[in-house]
């Protein structure tokens, strides 16, 4: 495909990524709160009580969803208008402050939008106008949301990880990234690998070293990229996770007993494997043979 055509496709994908990044900010903020509301309702139902859809004393609305109510400033309750919700542009025009009360707006919002745009543009440039590009966009957007949610809450929601697993298998029915047999084996081995590590660590120490969401995320990555990519993903995520964890302890940012989410490192390793996994696998096999 000519360079100019690829450049135009990348630009369109980047603009789409900006818009999706804005939506991902909503998902990251609201999905954990929606999960909490659901858990509270389930607990109330088990106790035979009338479930309350809002936490007592909470400013969160009673019927929270990804679509409703409209976004508001958490400081003053000002409803965000359409002109104030343009990805990145509105943040710059508002100088990072609420138009009503001048409360600071977190830099995270434009950063996530820009990250989604850059990864989307690169995916379009890397894969071209193919089914691989479409799948890569879906995978990358999901991994961004999972990364930040896990960083904030140490949760990897089933409402993202499980559909992501099935989408991976569906894309590979046509051999988009690997054959369907490798995808199915990848999902099985991905889950069972971390499940085995979890139970070995728990039996040895009596503590839980990771959450079940990590198993499901690695299973999803195995479903997308095949079992052949799992060694690279596990190696990359473990090395980076260990380096970051040790650095945080050394610089007194975390205590030794403070849990560190593993999902962001799995997600980052999955992104690397998506684009450069085949080359890394060949290099890895060349070193061990």
Main features:
single chain; 289 residues; 0% strand; mainly alpha
What do you see in this structure?
This protein is 67% helix and 0% strand. With 289 residues, it is mainly alpha-helical. Helix 1 (3-46) packs across helix 3 and helix 7 packs across helix 9. The protein has helices at 3-46, 89-93, 108-127, 131-153, 158-172, 180-205, 212-225, 230-250, 263-288. It is built from nine helices and no strands. It is globular.
SSE diagram, text form:
Elements: H1 3-46, H2 89-93, H3 108-127, H4 131-153, H5 158-172, H6 180-205, H7 212-225, H8 230-250, H9 263-288
Summarize model confidence as the mean pLDDT.
Answer: 87
Shape: globular
- The span between the termini is 36 Å
User: N-to-C SSE series?
Assistant: HHHHHHHHH
Number of strands: 0
| DSSP helical segment count | 9
Extract low-pLDDT stretches: 53-61
User: Helix coverage percent of residues?
Assistant: 55-70%
Q: Rg to the nearest angstrom?
A: 21 Å
Strand content: under 5%
Largest sheet properties = none
Q: What class, by secondary structure content?
A: mainly alpha
Question: What's a concise summary of this model?
Answer:
With 289 residues, the protein is mainly alpha-helical. 67% of the residues lie in helices and 0% in strands.
